[in-house]
């Protein structure tokens, strides 16, 4: 299999897209499939689509496709809701499994919504739980027999620095804690071995490296030996054993389907299902090898040509996800200047310029052309233009 597979994507003319770590581009297969889901399924089938187009089976069917990309067996991943909700569900179930313990460990590299959801859940429980947020390198040292759950994102969204999932999961288990991984910046970016690492829960989003589109639903994995016993905190009817029996009392579905909540987002799941065909016939190992090669080319060229930028990501590729970040005090304005010139990355406060590497639709020529533009923006100080200083609502 050769990479990239640019033909599978709509890539706007004149753009080098280095932000697939935040929102993937539009896969061509998604255009036709979404149009068909609208016109042929919703339009023609109306309510019959639930059975005739198997809308009801989408959360499990798409979950299996994603499971195959993150090392999870069939029947252990299900789709739905936003990642924030899936974080809440995983943590709530983990705390029930360790009801005698009160501490949750996370780290300061985690994405804020994960921490916010944890804080809200712990407040709602009102049982004296504590969220302890430590530095990423201090996680292992923070584990003791008071820790109920460890909740981490494998790849830091700002620096791209990567945890060792296997080692941290083992350390959490040695301390008797439940392990939850957020794979937002891993799924479709790196090989992940959920079954091998033995974690109890994993969650992730699908709008980044999996190219499911803005607002695409999240996924949740529960280790197969636990899926029939974990208690869902959000007891929606779609997670019921028999939703269409309309019982007055909740009875969870026998396995992973209990982590469903309400009506699935059929149109977004259809888009995502088609988007995932871009992974057919390519392995995550091939994608990873190509990503590392692109990142090494990028780092070498940027450091040689742009001395004002300071590498914020680990230099060792094995300690990094599929993004490269550079620090620059005027990073926000500089990123705006780059975007104006067709090189799209993004900015994270206070000074991080982020660039994502996505070998399905990027090649070395793109990377070198992007560096030409970065060098030009820095050499000419184009970022000084006042037009680049006003902050957008979404960065
Ligand atoms: C690690 C992580 N968790 C959660 C989210 C967001 O969650 P949601 O899909 O609920 O907006 C992101 C990015 O948006 C993220 O990077
Ligand atoms: N989910 C996002 C959104 O709804 C709007 C803008 C950006 C995002 C993101 O995905 C941000 C991303 N998690 C990050 O790594 O910063």
TrEMBL record:
Cofactor(s) for this UniProt protein: pyridoxal 5'-phosphate
GO molecular function terms attached to this record: kynureninase activity; pyridoxal phosphate binding
UniProt enzyme class: hydrolase
Source taxon at top rank: Bacteria
Residue numbers binding pyridoxal 5'-phosphate: 83-84, 111-114, 153, 182, 185, 207, 237, 263
Catalysed reactions listed for this entry: L-kynurenine + H2O = anthranilate + L-alanine + H(+); 3-hydroxy-L-kynurenine + H2O = 3-hydroxyanthranilate + L-alanine + H(+)
A Pfam cross-reference name: KYNU_C
GO biological process: anthranilate metabolic process; L-kynurenine catabolic process; L-tryptophan catabolic process to kynurenine; NAD+ biosynthetic process; quinolinate biosynthetic process
UniProt cross-references to InterPro entries, sorted A to Z: Kynureninase, PyrdxlP-dep_Trfase, PyrdxlP-dep_Trfase_major, PyrdxlP-dep_Trfase_small
A Gene Ontology term for the protein's cellular component: cytoplasm
Pathway(s): Cofactor biosynthesis; NAD(+) biosynthesis; quinolinate from L-kynurenine: step 2/3; Amino-acid degradation; L-kynurenine degradation; L-alanine and anthranilate from L-kynurenine: step 1/1
Annotated positions of the N6-(pyridoxal phosphate)lysine modification: 208
UniProt entry keywords in alphabetical sequence: Hydrolase, Pyridine nucleotide biosynthesis, Pyridoxal phosphate
EC identifiers of the protein: 3.7.1.3
Regions crossing the membrane: none
Keyword Hydrolase attributed: yes
Quaternary structure (record): Homodimer.
Protein role: Catalyzes the cleavage of L-kynurenine (L-Kyn) and L-3-hydroxykynurenine (L-3OHKyn) into anthranilic acid (AA) and 3-hydroxyanthranilic acid (3-OHAA), respectively.
Protein's UniProt name: Kynureninase
Organism listed in the record: Roseivivax marinus
